[in-house]
Amino acid sequence: MKQEDEIIRRQRERARIMALLLGAFVVLLFFITIAKIGINW
Amino acid sequence: MPAMEITNAAALPADWRDLLALTKPRVMSLVVFTGLCGLLAAPELPPIVLGFTAILCIALGAGACGALNQWYEADLDAKMRRTAKRPLPSGRMERQTALHFGVGLGAFSVILMGLAANWLAAGMLALSILFYVLVYTVWLKPRTAQNIVIGGAAGAFPPLIGWVAATGHFAPLPLLLFAIIFLWTPPHFWALSLFVRSDYAAAGIPMLPVVAGIQHTRRHIFIYSLPMAVAAIAPWPLGLTGPVYGTSAAILSGVFVVLAVRVLDSRSADPKEMPAEKHLFAYSVFYLFALFTALVADRWIAS
């Protein structure tokens, strides 16, 4: 495999995982906020 | 620019699997479990999402410790068969990447713990990360055979942090849980170090079998297993737990001491002929899981 191809493949993989983690973090912060202000579901 | 063949793997962006490997997921599982048990054993439970976040922060803090440990010990890891295939010694990642990843993960875990749980738990988490990295990895481990005795405190923090995250204050039971893991760590690691001592010797790490000999280490495993057993059983007579935990702790600790006696009686110097040491090491992991499971079961039955 060429070095440039490998760099692009890894960057794409990491970008996908970072997007997933950021999305999960936003959801987590939302529920933390709900719990902190004391709303019971 | 013409495309080039891959010549230096470390110059590429780090693979996410290698970043995950930096966090030592297997070690993290025990840390997460004991932290979770500390939280579940607390008299008052936080909302599920806050409890989940507290445990997540403990896991991320443990991951940060693993990454910073591998960053600092990359040269030593390259000399040991057990660790030579890790991302840094095998040249798959820049050392600086591990440092940035570890510091970032550690800072993130402490801040999130403070926001989601409380700042006392966050302070404890920060203290445990700093203790593991600075006191154990940097200071004690390369200098003294007592490294694991004092350094064991770093791994003993999670149940204390879990409890403090749930309640916001200290209490005698989580302090005893801290003492149990603190006293469990030396026999656990010394059993391992007996059958991988050539690795430690090659890396120049002064583990007890390397500097004091095999029989001396076997004696110390037995000696340390006694106060560990006392600490494990103590919550029952002190009235902090019920008979479910007390009976389980007495049986589990009794078996631990019996296995430690078998190690004491062992005379083999060949790592391939150390069944007693390997049994004790494997059992010590089961012991901690079973003991903390019994603690949570006892608290839930009582409530």
Question: What does the model show?
Answer:
The complex is a heterodimer of chains A (41) and B (303). Chain A is built from one helix and no strands. Chain A is mostly helical and 41 residues long. Chain A has one domain. Chain A starts with a helix and ends in a 5-residue tail after the last helix. The mean pLDDT of chain A is 89. Chain B is mostly helical. Chain B has two domains: 14-144 and 154-163, Tetracycline Repressor, domain 2 (Orthogonal Bundle); 171-303. Helices cover 75% and strands 0% of the residues of chain B. Chain B has helices at 16-22, 25-40, 48-72, 74-79, 95-116, 119-140, 147-167, 172-195, 197-203, 208-212, 214-233, 243-265, 275-302. In chain B, helix 1 packs across helix 3 (48-72). The interface between A and B is medium-sized, with 18 and 18 residues.
Radius of gyration of CA atoms of chain B, rounded to a whole number: 20 Å
Return the average pLDDT of chain A rounded to an integer.
Answer: 89
Q: How much helix is in the residues of chain A?
A: over 70%
The residue-averaged pLDDT of chain B reads 93
Helix content range of chain B = over 70%
**CATH level-1 class of the largest domain in chain B:** Mainly Alpha
N-end to C-end Cα span of chain B: 70 Å
Alpha-beta classification of chain A: mainly alpha
Characterize the main sheet of chain B: none
Q: Biggest protein-protein interface? A: A-B, 18 and 18 residues
Return residue spans of chain A where pLDDT drops below 50 for at least 5 consecutive residues. Answer: none
The ordered H/E elements of chain B are HHHHHHHHHHHHH
